[in-house]
Amino acid sequence: MVLKGSQDNSLVAITDIQDDKGQQILVSVSLSDNGSVDDVNKITSAYGREGFADYMKQ
User: Fold this and answer.
1) Structural domain boundaries, residue 41
2) Within 10 A of 55 (CB to CB), how many other CB atoms are there?
């Protein structure tokens, strides 16, 4: 699943992968300057999300 990120030109990818604590791994991506999914985008973070169910309610 891919969601709009909290910053301009960003998105959050929710993976099926879990960390060692059983939390869903989320990957934050900064899109290219033109705001599209391009050849070059930057992963800004990847982490297990504590409180994933509450995060999805937002």
Assistant:
1) 2-57
2) 14
- Counting the structural domains of the chain, the total is 1
User: Would you call 18 helix, strand, or coil by DSSP?
Assistant: strand
How many whole angstroms separate alpha carbon 21 and alpha carbon 7?
27
Give the model confidence (pLDDT) of 2-57 as tens digits.
Answer: 988 888 888 999 999 999 999 999 999 988 776 555 566 788 888 887 777 777 77
Distance separating the N- and C-terminal Cα atoms of the chain: 15
In what helix (H) or strand (E) does residue 55 lie, and over which residues does it extend? helix 52-57
pTM score, whole prediction:
0.70
* Six-digit token string for 29: 């991506």
